[in-house]
């Protein structure tokens, strides 16, 4: 990856001409089970690590939990109708593991499975391609109690669960992704502790990252054997990492963060090896003794596609001797290997998450995956922004979110023009929802949710996106 000393321009790309996407481009929207379903104790579902975490004092803003969320479990028919009104070509959802396999082992729970069968059938009846993610962070609590992702056995349990799902839904779901953002599961869940299960153990987080990828590889093998026609992949969250200056210390900080955030996952899954510099950087944390012969071959089992979640860029700088860097959600001091790196803010426009808006970073990210790693089809499986919304006369005019989508779709188109085989784009998110540790205080939806009444209001961005889908592209401005 090139690390230009001067960060590239930020924000909306210049292009204002009409842009058409390739025929068959998969226009979608994404959600995740724990963030929308609610019905936490219904239909035989048992707790996941997110139930435990969100019910633990002080872990989420205002103690918010996913107990009710968007009540999607009870409103799935209405929500699919909203998707159909938007004209979505695809819907990316995740399956709650403890809903379909309570406790994370043993037989399938027919009642839990039935919910997903109805969802998938309803999507298909509306001409919407189901895109199923097996793991969007809701590990059954019993598996965490048995050691969680730092324990090798969790990978085997995950493959077993993948097999159950293939048997149950393989006849009607074509697109399967194993993990969503293993970086977050490993480093936020076990390293910095800001996500469930909230552990702060550097070595455990590196082990978790490895076993997540091992589970992914085993699951791909199981799915492939059962569903030879399916399209199989994984979703990773990637960031361009730019040094704050061309000073050697800053350039080295960028190398290190790029190793931890991006190459930790891309290299094993797409090249079958860990990067040497990453292993050296982490030597103080772990000797990688948890990696067994043959693991990397499993982890790099061939896939059919790669899903990329893109939100922002990291700009980083060398430590200042004697100064403790400010804690930052993306790099709390105990994120192993990055303890002393400074995350620099450039003063450019940010979203309500304080994430810098950087559409050219999407072009850079997609080109890098294609040019340095793989010829596989790529999909943007998440991209979007939180902004404060106001309901005025029953309408939500979310101009900032709309502009964010517009700029990033222009970037996606630029990547396609540069030769990237990008075949689809999923807006995050269909609905406002439970934004993990931020609870309901951050709104990412194209559809507004009033959590008291569970009323849905399509925002301006939703109406605009429907038009983008109808045209298969962007209008001139
Ligand atoms: C991603 C997650 C998704 C959502 C967005 C804002 O990291 O995959 O669930 O929280 O961020």
In whole angstroms, the N-to-C terminal distance is 33 Å
Query: What is the typical, i.e. mean, pLDDT?
Result: 94
Instruction: Give the biggest beta sheet.
Output: 8 strands, parallel, barrel
Contiguous uncertain segments of 5+ residues: 1-15
Helix- and strand-based class? alpha/beta
Strand content: 5-15%
| Helix content class | 25-40%
Question: Can you write the helix and strand succession as a string?
Answer: EEHHHEHHEHHEHHEEHHHEEEHEHEEEHE
Apparent shape:
globular
Number of strands: 15
Ligands bound here?
A: beta-D-fucopyranose
How many helix segments? 15
What is the gyration radius calculated from CA atoms?
A: 21 Å
- Strands in their spatial order, largest beta sheet: 2-3-4-5-6-8-11-12
Plain-language structure description:
38% of the residues lie in helices and 14% in strands. It has 477 residues and is α/β, with parallel strands linked by helices. An eight-stranded parallel barrel has the order 2-3-4-5-6-8-11-12, surrounded by five helices. Strand 11, helix 14 and strand 12 (422-428) form a beta-alpha-beta unit. The chain starts with 18 loop residues before the first strand and ends with a strand. Its EC number is 3.2.1.21. It comes from Micromonospora gifhornensis. InterPro entries: GH (IPR017853), GH_1_N_CS (IPR033132), Glyco_hydro_1 (IPR001360), Glyco_hydro_1_beta-glucosidase (IPR017736).
Summarize the topology.
Elements lengths: L18 E2 L5 E5 L2 H4 L12 H6 L17 H15 L3 E5 L2 H4 L9 H16 L3 E7 L5 H5 L7 H17 L5 E6 L1 H11 L9 H25 L4 E7 L3 E3 L4 H24 L4 H6 L13 H5 L5 E5 L4 E4 L24 E2 L16 H14 L4 E5 L16 H19 L4 E7 L18 E4 L4 E4 L1 H12 L1 E2 L3
Parallel strand pairs: 2-3, 2-12, 3-4, 4-5, 5-6, 6-8, 7-9, 8-11, 11-12
Antiparallel strand pairs: 1-15, 9-10, 13-14
This protein binds beta-D-fucopyranose.
